[in-house]
Amino acid sequence: MRLTAGRVARRWVHLILGGALLMPFYLLASATLPMLVDGADPLRVPVWQFAAFGCALPVAALAGLLFPLLRPLEVAAVRALCAVPGGRLADGPAASWAARRRSALWFTAHLLAGGVVSGMTLTGPPAALLLLAVPFGADAPGLTWPAAFAGVAAPLTGAALLALVVGTAWGAGALLARWAPVLLGPTPADKLAAAERRAAELAARNRLARELHDAVGHALSAVTLQAGAARRVLDRDVEFARQALAAIEDTTREAVAELDAVLGLLREEHETGPAAPAPALDGLAALFDRTRAAGVRITAELSGDLAAVPPVVSREAYRIVQEGLSNALRHAGPVPVTVQVQLENGELALGIENPVAGARPGRTERTGGGRGLRGIAERARLLGGAASAGAADGVWRLTARLPVAAAGADGGAR
Asked: Which residues, 6 or more positions from 129, have their beta carbon under 8 angstroms from its beta carbon?
């Protein structure tokens, strides 16, 4: 009961706020009516007061239609005072005309109900108190209407008047609370815009996840193999261990640089300095050297003018090759790997093969795709290409085809 009373009280305050917002429009109508109609006197004649009240509402509706910022103001008031869940209401200004029409209708309904309840609140309780005091001989100088009520009729009428004020406030507040999600809720255009924003945010998150997975995952796989090799020969081949440690140093340094490039995507809107460039096809030689240092025998077959590949395709192709090598390191160990990168007929073809039947003990043969393979497929699909991976005849093959001509126009974008 206490919660219900508090809710009614807050909605009552919301209605009084609507009456206060109505006052500028009411005063404008009260000042305009005497100029348009002879004998109009909204300050003294009740009929003209109601006329001014009626003329103020269309002006308020026009204001709600012309000012998009009225919607977030009304939404804030509804959330705070009407006990309407925030998730059912729209956020931000009313951008479309459909949203503006809804906001204008809500604003008019709020001011109409607020004006009625405010007027009843100002006049009803004082009149009820006078009626309740009639049996006790109270007299109101200059007022004759209380004398028309005698005996028990006066307090009963006073109690009924108070109940009418409370009931009207409760009913108007409940009605506005029910209408709020309909008139202040998101329109189909708002829902579409919100869905587009969520899709863009999800795409950005997936992009960063792919970059972090490929850059850091490859480095950790290579470092793990290099450290294991150094540990096994440390006592009998100090020079090889020294070379493995140097390779670990180079790999981690390159990984930090790539990580800085990925984090630069997050900082680029807040920093004036350029972010570190992401690796591209011209970095394949260094990538092969770092992977060979982990004990992997790589045979690289590069053909075509790879320098002519647009930057966006070049960067994605590098990541695909990097992830293919990481998969070989994680799942097959230091086995021979063949990498093919071929540019011809406006298409960049990538192929990575390694044996799986002869994988060393402790390595798990791949039977399905993980995050890395999904990331490769996403990279290829975003460029309008395709990628596939699978094992056949004891060989794991990863292939990807990326169109180059379509990306040439905006190849500098990322």
From this structure: 158
